[in-house]
Amino acid sequence: METNFANSKTKENLMRAFAGESQARNRYTHAQQQAEQQKLYVLADLFMFTANQEKEHAMIFYNHLSECGGETIKIDGGYPVDISKNTVDLLNMAKHNEYEEYEDVYPAFAEVARQEGFSKIAQDFTNIAKIEKYHAERFECFAKLMEQDKLFASDETETWYCMNCGYIMEGRSAPPVCPVCAVPQGYYIRLSMTPWKI
Q1: Element (H, E) at 190
Q2: SS (HEC) of 5-47
């Protein structure tokens, strides 16, 4: 039997998810600024790209609360303070949080929504959990490259892509300066790792 939405745990879980996604977006924009200061523009783009997806997740959860317009929903919850001057730490913190949403938080919220009779909301929690897994894997991959000092170098030939002008080249490392637009190496990414690969 469907629970009345106004008295449901799902309503509170949607607000928790909205708060969590909103905070993730802001943590990632903060990390993006830090990566830019360190001239790690590929990581700045990674954080901003993910931040924009978190914004969309937040809006999906928020729109499910439309019948609560004008209401204040009180929730409790714990949210991380991911502050570090070390970009690898920021990547690993982001990875941890994304895995937590994928493995624990959103599956639990989906189950409550299913039990309360809100199948569309349950499906959204399940689908977004899958996206968070991909986010976690992506952060993990870039963290490992940083830890191995291989963000801009490889043991084998790679196709490198300049995110500023689009220049593509092959080699074991990205050039120190783009030969076309003269931006620093921090703008380069393996073509195979771009979300828009050919």
Answers
A1: strand 188-190
A2: HHHCHHHHHHHHHHHHHHHHHHHHHHHHHHHHHCCCHHHHHHH
The 8 Å CB, 24+ separation contacts for 161-164 are 161/188, 161/189, 161/190, 161/191, 161/194, 162/187, 162/188, 163/41, 163/42, 163/45, 163/187, 163/188, 163/189, 163/194, 164/41
Instruction: For residue 151, report the phi and psi dihedrals to the nearest 5 degrees.
Output: -65, -35
d(CA 1, CA 53): 34
Count of CA atoms in the C-beta half-sphere (13 A) of 14: 26
> CA-CA distance, 68 to 5, in Å (whole number)?
9
C-alpha dist (Å) from residue 45 to 8, 80, 142:
38, 22, 12
**Tens-place pLDDT, residues 28-74:** 999 999 999 999 999 999 999 999 999 999 999 999 999 999 999 99
| Model confidence, pTM | 0.92
